[in-house]
Amino acid sequence: MAFKKLLASLGAGGASVETVLTEVNAVPGGVVQGEVRIQGGSVNQDIEGLSVGLQARVEVESGDQEYKQDIEFTKVRLGGAFELQAGAVHAVPFGLEIPWETPVTMIDGQSLRGMHIGVTTELAIARAVDSSDLDPINVHPLPAQKAILDAFIQLGFRFKNADMERGHIRGTRQRLPFYQEIEFYPPSQYRGLNQVELSFVADEHAMDVILEMDKKPGLFSEGSDTFRSFQVGLNDFHGTDWAAYLNQWLSEVGSKRNWF
Q: Which domain holds residue 87?
């Protein structure tokens, strides 16, 4: 499948850029392939640089304020400087590796609300303003991630929302400057819970699974959070009944705190 996006004309001379992604569906640790096509305008122009990268729209908390920020979390330069002849087409193929920590944007073919990740294309032309654009991609979960997500669905949890937050989760293998939280509404048997937040932090070998349980505030008490993290191998997760594992932990934590 080809995904095309035409950038606005860049400066005097009217050069333009079209990015074509071979496939918009990808997984963490995979590669997004495509081609950048630069169309020359009415005059020769000096191209100072061409690059592609991955960008995420992330929530940032600063004091009492919260705002969105676009963070480019990987970038690859495609070749060096060159002169683009008037009317000429310059095509540059690329393969962009997707970091293992990249948040998922799709579950079972459904887009997750709040997720915005895409390929950026940047073209720098002498004596003109740099231009960039974003071509969205769909990041599907790894098999080990899907096993955990399927377990939540099997237990009756319902997807609420997802977001990406700037910051680090302590005690994990995180390297990116942000992380993803996938929020679920709990089923009725976990009546003391308001929601559960799930985060994955993966590398090429394993992933940290982080759960945050948000207790409902009671009449004479405030809500509270409980964290749990465990490691799952990317290739040896098949032997565990994850629905049973999660149910046992949720039940133990809830009963110890008289939540359920």
A: 3-139
